[in-house]
Design brief:
mainly alpha; elongated; 141 residues
Length: 141
C-alpha cells in the first residue's frame, strides 16, 4: 500500500462520520440548550455523543499525524491527496477544539437537569467540577 493510498484512507476515515457527526451534534446541542426545560436523557446523549466523537477525532489526529508531517517535509511535487489530508487534519483539530469548548455547557445542562443533591454519583462530580471552574473564572475577573 502506497503512502497516497494511506492518505486516501485517512481522509475517508475523517471525512464522513466526523464532520457530519460534529455538525449533527452541534445542531442538537444548540437546539437542546436553547430550551428552558432540562431533560437528563438529552444531557447524557450530548455528553456520550461528544465523548465518542472527540475520541474518533483524536484517533484520526494521532493516526494521521505521521503521514501529514511526512508530507510537509517531503521534497518535490506534493500530491493533491496530501494537501487534502493536511487540510482535513487541520479542520479536525479545530473541530476537536470546538467540541471540547462546549463541554462545560453540556455539564451545566446535565447537572441542571437534576435537583440539587439528586442524580447519579457522576452528576455530583460534574456539579462540583462546574462549581469549582465557575469560582476560578470569577476569581480571575
Amino acid at each position: 500500500m502506497s503512502t497516497a493510498d494511506v492518505a486516501k484512507d485517512l481522509i475517508t476515515l475523517a471525512g464522513g462520520p466526523s464532520i457530519f457527526g460534529v455538525a449533527a451534534l452541534l445542531g442538537f446541542l444548540a437546539s437542546t440548550l436553547a430550551k428552558t426545560e432540562r431533560d437528563p436523557r438529552k444531557g447524557w446523549y450530548l455528553l456520550g455523543g461528544g465523548l465518542l466523537l472527540t475520541g474518533w477525532l483524536v484517533m484520526f489526529i494521532v493516526i494521521a499525524a505521521p503521514t501529514v508531517v511526512a508530507s510537509w517535509t517531503a521534497t518535490g511535487v506534493v500530491s493533491p491527496t496530501f494537501v487534502l489530508l493536511s487540510a482535513t487534519w487541520l479542520v479536525t483539530i479545530v473541530l476537536t477544539i470546538v467540541l471540547v469548548s462546549h463541554t462545560r455547557a453540556v455539564l451545566v445542562y446535565l447537572t441542571d437537569s437534576y435537583p440539587p443533591g439528586a442524580g447519579p454519583r457522576s452528576v455530583k462530580l460534574f456539579r462540583s467540577l462546574v462549581t469549582k471552574s465557575s469560582h476560578v473564572v470569577s476569581a480571575r475577573s
